[in-house]
Design a protein that fits this description.
InterPro entries: Fido-like_dom_sf (IPR036597). The protein is mainly alpha-helical and 187 residues long. It contains 6 helices and 3 strands, in the order E-E-E-H-H-H-H-H-H. Strand 2 (10-14) and strand 3 (20-24) form a beta hairpin. The longest helix has 27 residues, at 137-163. The termini are far apart.
Length: 187
């Protein structure tokens, strides 16, 4: 399976059987927004489309520069995780989100639970405090889990659909959702 990004929110996928499929990524008007008033999902979606277009442009201009591509891809995926978490009032600031996502996307070992002595604990606590959100231990732990589980679910879907060449299926989506919500308090 191969893929390319023609731009404008589109993704071209060539299956193992050689069939081209085009996916148009668009924001649904039916989405139930449960977000603070100062966050605009449309603006986040436009930024997401812009980032997809930038990756597409980079792929066309510099296909041999794998280090730059990897760096941009990781940052783009971290931005996607951050934006998605922001819509759901989950996670924390972009800096810590990017740091944790980089570890997940590079398959580095990462703790399942954060401890108060961890450097990331203070970063998360500061972000939550700056956002006027609860910032006690359980809130920091929840924020940490929301970021790492989202990154793990993203990595899982990329592994299954892009790297392993599997068709996107209900089973893959259900497993990604299970990973996403693992140990996440949804109340």
């Amino acid at each position: 399976m191969a893929a390319s990004l023609p731009g404008y929110g589109n993704l071209r996928i060539k299956s193992l059987g050689g069939v081209d499929k085009y996916l148009n990524i668009e924001m649904s008007q039916n989405y139930d927004y449960d977000i603070p008033d100062d966050i605009e999902p449309e603006a986040l979606y436009e930024e997401f489309e812009y980032l997809i277009d930038q990756v597409a442009k980079m792929l066309k201009e510099q296909p041999a520069n794998h280090d730059v591509f990897d760096q941009v891809l990781v940052e783009t995926l971290a931005t996607m995780v951050y934006g998605s978490n922001l819509i759901e009032s989950a996670g924390a600031g972009f800096g810590i989100t990017k740091k944790l996502c980089e570890s997940i996307f590079k398959s580095e070992e990462i703790r399942e639970e954060i401890i108060e002595r961890d450097n990331d604990y203070e970063l998360l606590k500061q972000d939550l405090r700056a956002m006027n959100l609860p910032h006690g231990f359980l809130a920091v732990l929840q924020s940490y889990r929301e970021i790492i589980q989202h990154a793990k679910a993203t990595r899982y879907m990329i592994q299954q659909v892009y790297l392993d060449g599997k068709d996107l299926s209900e089973g893959i989506i259900m497993e990604a959702h299970r990973i996403l919500t693992f140990k996440i308090d949804t109340d």
